[in-house]
Every structure is written in C-alpha cells, then in structure tokens.
C-alpha cells in the first residue's frame, strides 16, 4: 500500500481574513508527481469539504483554474507540486473566497470594442500572429509583473472595469486590430482604446518589461510592440535603442 505523503500549504481567505493550513497529500503511487488540482480535489474530498476553487477543462484549454504557487501564477491542472509548496489565490485579482478570485473586471474593459459585423471563423486569411493570439486561454497569468495592472484598485465597485489595461486586454485589442475583417475605420478606435487603457506606460517601460503568458504567447513582441508602433509610430524603437 502506498503511504507516502507530500506536505502542501494552502492559503485560504474567509470572512476577510487569510490563514494557512497544512494538508498532507496522499500519493496514489510512489513515483506520483501530483498536479495542484489533484491536491485540491483530494483535500476537498478528505479534509476541507467546503474548499472553494475553480477548474474546468483539466487540459490547459480554459485557464480558469489558475492559482499562485509560491507566489507565481500557474495552471492548477498542469502545475506539479513538491514538498512544502504554497498554494494561494492569484495575488493580482481580488479574492472572493479561498482560491476563487473575481475575474470580471478584466473582460469588462472590452465592452463595446468588438463592432465587427462578421466574426472571423479562421477561414478568412489572416497573418500568423493573429492565429498565435487565438491560443490565449484567459488564465490571467500575464497580470503578474505588469506595471500597468499594478495601478488598478482591485476592489472595483458595482462590477465596473479596471481603469488600467494589462497584457490580456491589449492582446484582445491587437487581435481585433490585425483581424482581416476589422474595417479600417474601426482600427483607429481600437488604438484610441489602447491609449485610454494606459498603453503609454508600456512605451516608457518597454525595455525592462517582463510579462509571461501561461501558454507561451510572445506578449511583448506580438502584442505590446505592434500596438506601440501603431499608436506612436517608430518612436518605441528609437526610444529604447
């Protein structure tokens, strides 16, 4: 019988207070290297029956299971845990309960900025970058380390959108901008939207910008740089040479 265990720390948020608990994950076989989601499901079944967390596809397709592991965002369905790891909710979004965070103030930034009458079903020819950007699974790992998102007051009221943008919202705008179905008259509005979300900050911090995508999209080169070039011409290259 397999009896080997892993000690995992889980940070919970309840009644506006946070606290850590220790959970000893029971391995299913000696060489098992469990995913974060394996730990959470077993903990919910055996010790914390009201443990709150999100998961969906279990195949790195939906992004909603993202949590912080030792302070860095990871997909719970694909991140492996080791002894004494700390599982906590995303630090870049407000916590609702336990590991569940409030996500809706990010997509609300895009309300009103997809006026294309026909949607691109990928049968219409588009540049390679457009297809790369469709790989986004909305895990919001890219919020970590973003100098713009740090400016947001995370506790927005009345379900309003965040004032400042982030790599995810700019990815959405860039994908619309290069979509071959986007009318030229709409592209100007997309760039103005990007500016209103604080694109200028990326221009000033481009050289030291460190943002990471959970599925490997090159956010700096395929999202931020082309938007900066569209908004400010070639000034970004000159500014940082």
Kindly list the characteristics that best describe this protein:
241 residues, Ubiquitin-like (UB roll), five-stranded mixed beta sheet, 15% strand, two-stranded antiparallel sheet, elongated, 7 helices, alpha+beta, single chain
Please explain how this structure is put together.
- There is one protein chain.
- By secondary structure, the protein is an alpha+beta fold.
- The protein folds into two domains: 5-100, Ubiquitin-like (UB roll), CATH 3.10.20.30; 107-239.
- 28% of the residues lie in helices and 15% in strands.
- The chain is built from seven helices and seven strands; from the N terminus they run E-E-H-E-E-E-E-E-H-H-H-H-H-H.
- The protein has helices spanning 36-46, 128-133, 167-178, 184-196, 199-205, 219-232, 235-239, and strands at residues 5-14, 17-26, 66-69, 72-75, 86-88, 95-97, 100-101.
- The protein has a five-stranded mixed β-sheet with strand order 2-1-5-3-4.
- Helix 3 packs antiparallel against helix 4 and helix 3 packs across helix 6.
- The chain is elongated, with a radius of gyration of 20 Å.
Assign a percent range to the helix content.
25-40%
Per DSSP E runs of 2 or more residues, the count of β-strands stands at: 7
Low-pLDDT windows of residues = none
Order of helices and strands: EEHEEEEEHHHHHH
Strands across the major sheet, in which order?
2-1-5-3-4
Overall, the morphology is elongated
Question: Helix count, per DSSP?
Answer: 7
Strand content: 5-15%
End-to-end gap? 62 Å
Using only CA atoms, what is the Rg? 20 Å
């Amino acid at each position: 019988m397999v009896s080997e265990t892993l000690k995992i720390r889980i940070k919970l948020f309840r009644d506006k207070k946070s606290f850590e608990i220790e959970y000893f994950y029971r391995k299913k076989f000696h060489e098992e290297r469990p995913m974060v989601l394996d730990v959470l499901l077993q903990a919910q079944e055996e010790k914390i029956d009201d443990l709150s967390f999100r998961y969906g596809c279990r195949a790195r397709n939906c992004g909603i299971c993202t949590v912080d592991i030792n302070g860095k965002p990871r997909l719970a369905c694909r991140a492996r845990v080791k002894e004494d790891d700390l599982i906590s909710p995303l630090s870049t979004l407000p916590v609702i309960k336990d590991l569940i965070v409030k996500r809706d103030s990010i997509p609300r930034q895009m309300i009103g900025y997809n006026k294309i009458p026909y949607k691109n079903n990928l049968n219409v020819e588009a540049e390679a970058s457009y297809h790369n950007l469709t790989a986004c699974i909305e895990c919001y790992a890219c919020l970590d380390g973003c100098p713009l998102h740090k400016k947001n007051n995370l506790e927005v009221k009345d379900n309003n959108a965040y004032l400042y943008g982030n790599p995810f919202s700019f990815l959405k705008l860039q994908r619309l901008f290069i979509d071959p179905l986007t009318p030229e008259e709409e592209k100007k509005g997309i760039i103005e939207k990007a500016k209103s979300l604080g694109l200028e900050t990326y221009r000033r911090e481009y050289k030291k910008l460190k943002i990471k995508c959970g599925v490997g999209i090159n956010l700096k080169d395929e999202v931020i740089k082309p938007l900066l070039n569209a908004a400010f011409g070639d000034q970004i290259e000159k500014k940082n040479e």
